[in-house]
Amino acid sequence: MELPKRVLSIQSHVVSGYVGNKSAVFPLQVMGFEVDAINSVQLSNHTGYKLFYGQVLNEQNLMELVSGLVENDIHFYSHLLTGYIGCPKFLSKVAEVYKILKEKNPNLIFVCDPVLGDNKKMYVPEEMLDVYKNEIIFLTDIITPNEYELELLSGKIINTVKDINEAITILQNLGCKTVVVSSFNHSETNLKSVGKSIFSENIVEIDIPYIKYSFIGTGDLFAALLLLWMSLNNNNLKESMEKTIATIQAVLKRTVHYIIQANPKNFMFNKELKLIQSISDIQNPNVTIFGKLV
What does pTM read for this prediction? Predict the structure, then answer.
């Protein structure tokens, strides 16, 4: 009997919009994964708007929720997925949660999106970096940093694809099994995604055409999609990255269409990812951008 695909997802939540758990839970569910969500923060909307309100979960709150799962013996998960966490003490407790879940299911897969910053700027406390490096990385099965986050975690400045490959090796030497860089500014016309797994000698590279708008929530979506396709494709990294990127491109193109058609007075709202409208692209991604093995 196949074990259930059940994910505990610990990351941010917004009432309106699609970032964090709002971006990750839906695609996992429509692909047959049960998802239990713990919201590291709960905000009215993402922080790109002119204002936002909400609450922050602390490390004690996290352990209370997990204790409820454990004491009711409902803490068997196939996957742990983490995203935005803004407090070092909370992140340290995530390592403790991992160990609790791993004891219950020794085959637990930990997928970590190490949300630290972007465009050479950190937007979490600097102490978070030490927790990721010293307490989290060696536990992870899959980690999905962007270019800047890879620099921070590896300690290596990245200017070329060769630098990325060397930085990935550094993380793998620290214990992470699979590293997938969600985006690297490769040229004026293309982004590049690069992945390497201990299950293969090859590095996977995929060139991704630029879309002129910037979006929030794509990293959260990337990690969730990669989790589900690595699970469904028996850890075939090339195919999983291709399907993940195909879905994200479809979602972004549909979102751009809505931006163009919509009233420009609420541009930020119009830029929210059109996930619900893209359900068919989540379930059956049309791969037109193929990766290469190097």
Answer: 0.96
Considering only CA atoms, which of 110, 98, 101, 107 is closest in space to residue 76?
101
What are the structure tokens assigned to 38, written together? 């713990």
> How many residues make up the chain in this entry?
294
What is the spatial order of strands in the sheet that 54-56 belongs to? 54-56, 34-43, 6-14, 79-82, 109-112, 142-143, 178-185, 190-197, 203-209, 292-293
Indicate which residues carry an active-site annotation. 220
pLDDT tens for the chain, 294 residues long, are 577 899 999 999 999 999 999 999 999 999 999 999 999 999 999 999 999 999 999 999 999 999 999 999 999 999 999 999 999 999 999 999 999 999 999 999 999 999 999 988 999 999 999 999 999 999 999 999 999 999 999 999 999 999 999 999 999 999 999 999 998 886 777 899 999 999 888 999 999 998 888 899 999 999 999 999 999 999 999 999 999 999 999 999 999 998 888 766 788 899 999 999 999 999 999 999 999 999
Q: How many whole angstroms separate alpha carbon 257 and alpha carbon 252?
A: 9
Architecture of domain 6-293 in this structure: 3-Layer(aba) Sandwich (3.40)
Structural contact between residues 197 and 177, judged by C-beta atoms closer than 8 angstroms: yes
Residues 6+ positions from 201 with CB-CB distance below 8 Å:
none
Q: Which residues, in sequence order, are bridge partners of residue 207?
A: 192
The two tokens of residue 177 are: 């099994």
Nearest to 205 by CA among 195, 216, 220: 195
- Contact, 228 vs 33, CB < 8 A? yes
CA dihedral 210, 213, 216, 222 (to 10 degrees): -20
Distance CA 234, CA 142 (A): 14
Taking the C-alpha atoms of residue 205 and residue 160, their distance in angstroms, rounded to an integer, is: 13
